Automatic annotation (TrEMBL):
<feature type="domain" description="1-deoxy-D-xylulose 5-phosphate reductoisomerase N-terminal">
    <location>
        <begin position="4"/>
        <end position="129"/>
    </location>
</feature>
<dbReference type="GO" id="GO:0070402">
    <property type="term" value="F:NADPH binding"/>
</dbReference>
<dbReference type="GO" id="GO:0030145">
    <property type="term" value="F:manganese ion binding"/>
</dbReference>
<keyword id="KW-0479">Metal-binding</keyword>
<dbReference type="InterPro" id="IPR013644">
    <property type="entry name" value="DXP_reductoisomerase_C"/>
</dbReference>
<dbReference type="InterPro" id="IPR036169">
    <property type="entry name" value="DXPR_C_sf"/>
</dbReference>
<comment type="pathway">
    <text>Isoprenoid biosynthesis; isopentenyl diphosphate biosynthesis via DXP pathway; isopentenyl diphosphate from 1-deoxy-D-xylulose 5-phosphate: step 1/6.</text>
</comment>
<feature type="binding site">
    <location>
        <position position="38"/>
    </location>
    <ligand>
        <name>NADPH</name>
    </ligand>
</feature>
<feature type="binding site">
    <location>
        <position position="122"/>
    </location>
    <ligand>
        <name>1-deoxy-D-xylulose 5-phosphate</name>
    </ligand>
</feature>
<feature type="binding site">
    <location>
        <position position="37"/>
    </location>
    <ligand>
        <name>NADPH</name>
    </ligand>
</feature>
<dbReference type="InterPro" id="IPR003821">
    <property type="entry name" value="DXP_reductoisomerase"/>
</dbReference>
<feature type="binding site">
    <location>
        <position position="215"/>
    </location>
    <ligand>
        <name>1-deoxy-D-xylulose 5-phosphate</name>
    </ligand>
</feature>
<feature type="domain" description="DXP reductoisomerase C-terminal">
    <location>
        <begin position="259"/>
        <end position="378"/>
    </location>
</feature>
<feature type="binding site">
    <location>
        <position position="36"/>
    </location>
    <ligand>
        <name>NADPH</name>
    </ligand>
</feature>
<feature type="binding site">
    <location>
        <position position="214"/>
    </location>
    <ligand>
        <name>1-deoxy-D-xylulose 5-phosphate</name>
    </ligand>
</feature>
<keyword id="KW-0460">Magnesium</keyword>
<dbReference type="Pfam" id="PF08436">
    <property type="entry name" value="DXP_redisom_C"/>
</dbReference>
Amino acid sequence: MRRISIFGSTGSIGESTFDLIQRDGDAYDVIALTGGRNVARLAEQAKALNAQLAVTAFDDCLDELKDALSGSGVEVASGTAAVAEAASRPVDWAMSAIVGAAGLVPGLRIAEQGAMLALANKESLVCAGRLLKQTAGGNASRILPVDSEHSAVFQALVGEDMDAVERVIITASGGAFRDWPIDKLREATPEQAATHPNWNMGQRITIDSASMFNKAMELIETHEFFDLPAVKIEALVHPESLIHALVGFNDGALMAHVGPPDMRHAIGYALHWPRRRDLPVERLDLARIGALTFRPACDDRYPALRLAREVMETGGLSGAAFNAAKERALDHFIARRIGFTDMAVVVERVLTRLWSQDALSQDMTLDNVLAVDALARNEADAAAAR
Ligand code: NAD
Ligand code: MG
């Protein structure tokens, strides 16, 4: 039996992972499941998978979790340190699907113990790509991409030589506002931004899709994951969300990965890698679909993309500042303290200020990453208040 853990198991990616594991329950020995405030669901999952340990990230949820699991034999714990401890428990495979920078330390712990790290938490690569890759490399851990675009690139690269790669194109649906006139974007509300035309995801990543901050994060994720320079990475708007990414080679060939917008494909690929197994996803009927369309991803409509390129070119701890500023800008937008287009303004102000202070060129240690994360959050709060 394969020992597995799921971090963020009550979220959108977590539930899809749970679904695949539960369908084949006898094949897995579930060590740890972690969640946040959705304690009832966490307890249900822990019982259904017969997990050894269930952890809520929040101490004020512990009593509820204890009650929900009393008599079940499932060990319970709470808090950030308990989530990190759970990530140190030996497994063969772990899903990192906590949302935000909170996924960084658990991801590092999984890499340290040498497990296969299925990485949905793109924030950890954006904040601390080099650190995470070095930790994995030094401990015989393998990082497998779960973000659909990166899984698509990873699959298109099987058997290929990286020297032959001219460019990587990741697609974007364009989010909720792809057909809105640019000057109307300023008035967009959190409710409008939290609906996605094609994918069913958590609230934060859905809003990030509308602002293209999600794609901006994914450009940086591509840069980190595949060690490609910024000039070789492009974003392309593809409203149907059926092609997830394309890899362009030096002989002019483009290898496209086509599939339904169902994260269970990318999760399942990472779960069974290096093999392919049957997965319960829709089989596309291309004759019925008829046409696939594309539009440029323009920087004037999506300033987040331009900022991501600057972050890749500057390097150092810029990714950590970018992610933290973006997370806070998103909090302020959700709380209606700033408008939709102000999110990019806030992030740009934070980066410009920290770059001008030379505050992002220290070594990439965990302490430095966490310090920059805290600094950028404060700067974002100040910028949002202006
Ligand atoms: P979600 O909001 O649906 O779920 C997040 C999970 O993290 C939940 O289990 C929640 O309880 C937990 N959590 C929240 N705050 C936490 C904290 N401070 N400490 C510990 N746990 C906490 O998010 P999601 O959409 O499943 O996304 C998860 C990650 O996967 C993100 O990094 C996202 O960018 C990435 N991702 C998601 C999708 C998707 O289709 N949803 C696709 C690609 C990548
Ligand atoms: Mg994606």
